[in-house]
Amino acid sequence: MTAMTILVSRDGDAGILHISGDITSGSEGDLMKAYTQASDAGATAIVLDFSGLEYMNSGGIGLLVTLLVRAQRAGQRLMAIGLTEHYRQILSLTRLDEAIEIHDDEAAAMAAVTA
Amino acid sequence: MTNIAPDDPGTRSEANWAKPVDRLSAAGVSGAKDDAVSGKRVSGPLQGFGQLWQKTFKAPLTGVDLTPEAVVAIWKDAFPTFWPTGQKFYAPLSGITPGEVALLEIAPVPGAPVKLSTGVMVLYADDESFTFMTPEGHTLSAWITFSAYREGDVTVVQAQALERPSDPFDELAYMLGGNRMNNRFWQQTLQNLARHVGVAEPVVETQIVCIDKNRQWRHVNNLRNSATVRSAWRTMTSPLRKLTGKG
To answer: Do A95 and B43 count as a contact with CB atoms less than 8 A apart?
Structure first.
C-alpha cells in the first residue's frame, strides 16, 4: 500500500487537491483536512487531481460521496481531472459522474470554472 | 464522522472492480421466485431520495485465530447463512465476485405476508473486503462494504453502509422503524458470523452518522421503480396469475 499524500494549490476561484498514492477509507482524515484547506479562501470549485493516484478501493469511492456532500452543502462544484480510463469507468459505474464533473486536465477544469 | 476500518487492499488489480454495465442481469442466479433486478440500473447513494446515512457495525472476533483474509473468505462462501432468519439471499452461481448479481427476498417487517424482491450487484471484491451496490427499485440506494481487519491482536469484522432511502415511501418507512430494523439486520448478521467462527458471546459496536439531512426531491420519481410496490402488486395478483397460468 502506498500512503496517500495531498498537495493543495489555488487557481482563481478553484481549490485544487493534487492526490498521490492510494485512497482507501483510511484516507478520510487527510482528504477532509485538505478539502477544508482548499475551501478556506472561499473556493467556488474544488478540483480533485487524480494524476498521481495509484489505487482506489470501494472505501475510497465512499469518501468521494462524503466529499461531494460537503462541497454541495458549501455551494461548490466538485471536479475530477487526471483520471485513468479505469477510474473513469469506476466513476461511471458508480454513477458518481452524474455529480462530479470530469475533465481531462487542469486547463479544461479551469475553463469550465470560468465559463 | 469517523471511519474506522483500515482497508488495505489485498490485491491491486483492476479485476477487483465490476466491469461497466448499463443494465443489470440476474441470469447467473437460480432459486429466486421473482427477478426484480434484470434490466435495472444500479442506484447508489447519489441517486436516492432520503437522508444520507453512514452506518458502521463492527464485531471483534476475540479469541479466534483467523486472519482477515480467512474470515472474508468464509463470509463470501457462506454469505446467505449469516443473514437473520426469514431473509433470503440467492447468491450468484459463480460466487461473490465483481459484477455478479444476487437476488434477495426480504420481509419488510417480521412475519409480513409480502416479501420484497430485490437484489444487489457486487461492485468490488478483494481478499479483505467486498462491496454491494443496490439496483433501482431497492428500498435503499446504497453501497455496503463488508470487511475484516486487524486491530492489535484481534481480527475485527465490519459492515459499513452508505445509504439513502430510495423514494418518499421508503423514507417514511425508514423513519417509522425501517432504520432500526436495518440496524438490527446487520447487527444480527455480524453476530451470526462471529458465532460461526467461534465467538461465544459476540458484541457488535454500532456507529451511525447522518451525512446529509437534505432530501433529494429531484429523485422523487424513483417511486416508479419501487420494488415495494412491485412486490405488493405481485402478491395481490398472485391468485389471478395462477388461475390464468401466468404465475
So the answer is: yes
Q: Which of residues 9-28 of B touch A (CB under 8 A)?
A: 9, 12, 14, 16-21
Please give the backbone phi and psi of residue B215, each rounded to the nearest 5 degrees, phi first: -100, 145
Give the C-alpha separation, B103 to B168, whole Å.
23
Residues A39 and B214: their CA atoms lie apart, in Å, by: 21
C-alpha cell at B124: 468490488
ipTM above 0.90, yes or no: no
Confidence of residue B227 (pLDDT cuts 50, 70, 90): confident
Q: What's the sign of the alpha-carbon dihedral B96, B93, B102, B15?
A: positive
DSSP calls for A69-109: HHHHHTT-EEEEES--HHHHHHHHHTTGGGTSEE-SSHHHH
- Is B131 in CB contact (< 8 Å) with chain A? yes
What Å distances lie between residue B203 and B108, B192, B195, B199, CA to CA? 25, 11, 10, 9
Total-model pTM: 0.88
Sheet containing A45-56: order of strands: A5-11, A14-23, A45-56, A77-81, A101-102
To which H or E segment does residue A110 belong?
A: helix A106-114
Instruction: Using alpha carbons, select from B141, B120, B116 the residue that is nearest to residue B37.
Output: B120
* Residue B6 near chain A (CB below 8 Å): yes
> Nearest CA of chain A to the CA of B22: how many Å?
8
**Cell numbers of B39, please?**
434490466
Say if residue A75 is exposed, middle or buried (CB neighbours under 10 Å; 0-12, 13-18, 19+): exposed
Alpha-carbon gap, residue A105 to A77, rounded angstroms: 16
Is residue B72 within 8 Å of residue B150, measured between CB atoms?
A: no
Q: Which three cell numbers stand for residue B172?
A: 417514511
Using CA of residue A52, residue B149, residue A33, residue B123, what is the dihedral sign? Answer: positive
Of A54, A59, A95, the CB nearest to B46: A95
- Predicted local distance difference test score (pLDDT) of residue B29: 87
- DSSP for B183-227, please give it: HHHHHHHHHHHHHHTT-SS---EEEEEEEE----GGGGGGGGG-H
B86-110: per-residue pLDDT in tens?
889 999 988 999 999 999 988 766 6
